[in-house]
Give the backbone structure.
Amino acid sequence: MSHILCRATRLMSTSTMQRAASKSQQPYPFSSTALTPDVHHIPPTPSLRQGKGLMEYLQQTLPTAEKREMLSKLFDRNSPGRLLPGSIVTVLSEQAPTSFTGVLLAIRRRGQDTSFRVRNIIQRTGVEMQFFPNSPGLKEIKVIRKPPKGRMRRAKLFYLRDSPEKMSMIAGGKK
């Protein structure tokens, strides 16, 4: 019974498509059921041709020269002053003048979508925050202390979530 119902639906939808094809759409040459819509070219308006609107928005939202310098210094793999997992960093945000200090757990380099995670223990509760350096709300990133012994053995320090003793040793610079 369901087989007959599916076949009837398929036939009905094909006939509907063929009627639509005869009105305003052309059939696709490699399939009798696929349709391609007619493309109507709409010329750009004079203001769009001059770049008004979009260019103003891009100029306001693009990072400033100082921010670009900070990003290249802290997040470029070949920079000597780059952020390393295990560093103690302070992140200042612009919306509410607040700062968050903690151990840098991980850096995720993805071009414009680059982010990093910072973890701290506040009132015996682990608090982790993810920051996007390209965000206009991020004001400044300060490196308080580099990781102990120059660098950590792992790129992602998520194991520190389970052992607050190790995290406090890193924060204290004893490891």
